[in-house]
Amino acid sequence: MTAKKNEPPFEELYKKLEEAVEKLEKGGLSLEQSIALYEEGMTLAKQCQAILDGAEQRITKLRESFTQAAEEVEPEEAPLPEAD
Question: Does 44 map to a domain?
Fold first, then answer.
């Protein structure tokens, strides 16, 4: 599952989230500005988490398909010929 065409990439969202956190930590904002920035940060965090969840699902599916393919390819164990 990839990001939708209208959604910014994960890296861009994460950078904006980091910037919001830095501004909040720096202080000097009014209460209203702080609340608005916090709300923006929470929205960005949810978007980032959704992208990470999708990536995790993709990786899980790839691992499962790789495991299944590997099990199908493994030859049956045959006894080794005895040495004379």
Answer: yes
